[in-house]
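agent> Task received from the user: take the single chain below, predict its 3D structure, and emit structure tokens. No templates, no multimer pairing.
agent> Plan: (1) validate residues, (2) run structure prediction, (3) serialize to tokens, (4) report one or two observations.
agent> Step 1 OK, no nonstandard residues flagged.
tool_call: predict_structure(input=
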Amino acid sequence: MSLEELADKSVVWEAAVKKLLKSFAAIGAAIGAVLMPLIMWWPFNGDTEPQETVVIENWGYSPQCSQLFNTINWGWSEEQWSKWETIRKDMRC
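)
tool_result: status=success, residues=93
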């Protein structure tokens, strides 16, 4: 086998490998294009109820949350802050 024959075969193999890689990339893109909408729209947890919001549209927080935020004292201890945070989470503010 001469050097020229080897070079010709390597060029043919290179072209074949490039075609295979392009084919695999096209197959992967097609599979991704099919699976992504299915994954995006699939109801994983079944929780379709709307979440309760505390922020009133165009008005801000509810009156209870506003009163809670008005009680903030920046001199509180860590324990007082943790109790306030617990109340805030319970009220969903």
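agent> Step 4: summary for the user.
The beta strands are 55-56, 60-61.
agent> Done.
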